[in-house]
Design brief:
Blueprint: H1 7-13, H2 29-32, E1 37-40, E2 46-49, H3 51-56, H4 85-94, E3 97-105, E4 111-123, E5 126-135, H5 144-153, E6 159-164, E7 169-172, H6 174-180, H7 184-187, H8 202-213, E8 218-225, E9 231-242, E10 248-257, H9 260-274, H10 284-301, E11 305-313, H11 315-322, H12 324-341, E12 347-352, E13 355-361, H13 366-373, H14 376-380, E14 384-386, E15 389-391, E16 394-402, H15 409-425, E17 431-433, H16 436-445, H17 449-461
Parallel strand pairs: 16-17
Antiparallel strand pairs: 1-2, 1-5, 3-4, 4-5, 6-7, 6-10, 8-9, 9-10, 11-13, 11-16, 12-13, 14-15
Helix pairs in contact: 11-12, 15-16, 15-17
C-alpha cells in the first residue's frame, strides 16, 4: 500500500519555505535552506525540520519528527506539561519576532551554543512557530538593552551587525543576509573584514578603530563586497555598546544601502580621489595602497615584485618652451606608452609632475624586469605630436626588486628613486637597477639627489587622507 506523504512535510524537507506566510522576507529564502530550521506546533512538538537541523543535532533523517523541542532546547519550554509553557507560548505568539541565546543538547549528549530566531507563521490556516538556529560564537551577555536591540533588528530593513571589540561578528540580522548574500552561519565568528572591497586604504580602517575604541561613534560611506563579488555602497553608522562601567563590550553597526544615482556619484568621487585627472593613471594614494598589497601578497606567497621609478628627461624644457598644453600632451603620451608596455597585472601610476612609478608583479630577477620593460625605452623614443610639432620622449628608469633589494615599502621607494638618479647620471634614457654604490655616489653625481630622494620618500610615506570619509 502506497504511503501518502504530507505535502507540507515534503516542502519543508526540501528546504522550500515558499509556503510560509507572514513576515519572512522572500528575498532571504535562498539562504533559508542552509540554516537549521524547525517548525513547532502550539504544544512545542516538532512537526517538520530540514536536513540542516538534523545534522546540527546529530540526528538520523526523521528522528526529530514528533519530538518535544524541550529535549533539544531545555530553556525553550513549549509543551503544556513543561513549567513555564503558558508564559513562553504567549510571549512568542504576541511578538512579531524574537532573537534568543540558548544552550542546546544534541541527541548524542553534545552541547551547543545557539542563537535562535523565533517567528510566528501560518501554514494552511494552522498556526506554528518557526525557529531558525545559528551556531553562536559567544553569548552577547545579559544586557537587556542589547537583547532588545537584536530582537528589534530582525524586522528592520537596515542591515545590523554586532561584533565584539576585536571585530568578530556575533550577530547579523535578516536584512544583512538579504543584502550581502551571506547567511548567518557563514559570517558568525568571522572577522567583519570579510566584506571588504579593497577600495578603502589602511588609514581609513585605522581611523575607524581609533574612533570607536575611544568610545565615539563612526559614520562613513563604505564600499563593501557582496558574497557574489559585487561592490555595493552603504551609509554605515557604528557605535560602541557600553556596559555599566562605561567600557565598550560590543560594536553595533547599522547601515543602509545607497540608491543607484548616489552610488554612481560616490564611485565617480572614489575614482577621482585615486586617479590622476590628466592621464587617468592611479595617483600617489592608489600607488601606495597597491604597493602595500603587493608587499603583503609577496611575503605570504614567497614571491617577488619590482618597483620602478620613471622620470621624463628634458620635460621641463618642453613645458617652458612650448607651453603647458604641449607638456600635458607629452605626459599623456608617456602614460599611454607605459600602459601599453606592461602587463594587465602591473600598476602604472603618476606621482606628480613628470614622475611616474610602476609596480611589476611576479618578478624575481633583473631579467624579468628587462623582459617586461624591454620595449618601453624604444617606444618612448617614438615621441608624440602636438599641434603639428613632434616631441621626443626619453626617460630615466630606476628599479629595485623585493625581496632581494628592499624588504619594506620605505626602503623600496628610496632604492628605486636613487636608482633613477643613477640612470640620469649615466646620461638618461636607460634602466638602472639599485646597488649600494648608488647610495654612496648620489651626493657626488648630484649634490641635491640624496636630499631630493629623502624628501620624495617622506612625501610618499605621509599618511594619506581616506576618501569619502564622513564626519
Amino acid at each position: 500500500m502506497e504511503t501518502k506523504l504530507d505535502p507540507m512535510h515534503a516542502l519543508f524537507r526540501e528546504g522550500n519555505l515558499s509556503f510560509v506566510r507572514g513576515d519572512v522576507d522572500s528575498a532571504s529564502r535562498s539562504s533559508d535552506a542552509e540554516r537549521p530550521m524547525v517548525l513547532l506546533d502550539k504544544h512545542g512538538v516538532v512537526r517538520f525540520c530540514n536536513p540542516s537541523m538534523e545534522l546540527l543535532f546529530n540526528c538520523r533523517k526523521g528522528e526529530l519528527d514528533g519530538c518535544d523541542v524541550a529535549k533539544l532546547l531545555p530553556s525553550l519550554p513549549l509543551r503544556k506539561k513543561t513549567p513555564g509553557y503558558n508564559l513562553a507560548f504567549a510571549t512568542f505568539w504576541e511578538q512579531e519576532a524574537l532573537q534568543l541565546n540558548l544552550n542546546g543538547h544534541t541527541t548524542t549528549g553534545g552541547s551547543l551554543l545557539l542563537t535562535v530566531s523565533v517567528r510566528r507563521v501560518s501554514v494552511e490556516r494552522h498556526h506554528f512557530i518557526l525557529l531558525s538556529l545559528f551556531r553562536a560564537t559567544q553569548h552577547l551577555g545579559q544586557d537587556r538593552e542589547l537583547e532588545s536591540l537584536m530582537a528589534a533588528a530582525e524586522v528592520k530593513s537596515d542591515m545590523v551587525i554586532v561584533t565584539d571589540t576585536e571585530g568578530t561578528i556575533c550577530y547579523v540580522n535578516a536584512a544583512f543576509e538579504r543584502i550581502s548574500g551571506y547567511s548567518r552561519n557563514e559570517v558568525l565568528g568571522q572577522p567583519a573584514r570579510i566584506m571588504r572591497s579593497g577600495l578603502h586604504d589602511a588609514d581609513f580602517y585605522k581611523h575607524l578603530w581609533a574612533t570607536v575604541k575611544s568610545g565615539n561613534d563612526f559614520r562613513a560611506v563604505f564600499f563593501n563586497r557582496r558574497k557574489n563579488g559585487e561592490i555595493f555602497n552603504e551609509d554605515k553608522h557604528i557605535r560602541p555598546f557600553m556596559n555599566r562601567q562605561g567600557k565598550a563590550t560590543h560594536f553595533v553597526a547599522t547601515s543602509r544601502e545607497l540608491d543607484e544615482p548616489l552610488r554612481s556619484t560616490l564611485l565617480r568621487l572614489q575614482h577621482e580621489a585615486n586617479h590622476d585627472a590628466l592621464t587617468g593613471l592611479p595617483n600617489r594614494n592608489l600607488f601606495m595602497d597597491r604597493l602595500g598589497q603587493a608587499l603583503f601578497m609577496a611575503s605570504r606567497k614567497n614571491a617577488g615584485f619590482a618597483v620602478v621609478f620613471v622620470d621624463l628627461d628634458g620635460f621641463k624644457a618642453i613645458n617652458d618652451n612650448h607651453g603647458h598644453a604641449a607638456g600635458d600632451a607629452v605626459l599623456c603620451a608617456a602614460a599611454e606608452h607605459m600602459r601599453n608596455s606592461v602587463r594587465d597585472q602591473d600598476t602604472v601610476a603618476r606621482l606628480g609632475g613628470d614622475e611616474f612609478a610602476l609596480i611589476l608583479l611576479d618578478i624575481q630577477h633583473r631579467e624579468d624586469v628587462q623582459t617586461v620593460l624591454g620595449k618601453l625605452l624604444s617606444v618612448f623614443a617614438t615621441g608624440t605630436t602636438f599641434e603639428k610639432k613632434h616631441f621626443s620622449i626619453n626617460a630615466s628608469l630606476g628599479a629595485d626588486i623585493y625581496p632581494a633589494g628592499g624588504g619594506d615599502i620605505e626602503t623600496l621607494i628610496r632604492h628605486a628613486d636613487l636608482a633613477m638618479y643613477g640612470a640620469k647620471a649615466a646620461g638618461g634614457a636607460c634602466l638602472h637597477f639599485f646597488k649600494e654604490q648608488d647610495q654612496r655616489d648620489a651626493p657626488l653625481s648630484d649634490k641635491t639627489a640624496s636630499r631630493r630622494c629623502s624628501s620624495k620618500t617622506a612625501r610618499l610615506m605621509m599618511p594619506r587622507s581616506s576618501s569619502l570619509r564622513s564626519s
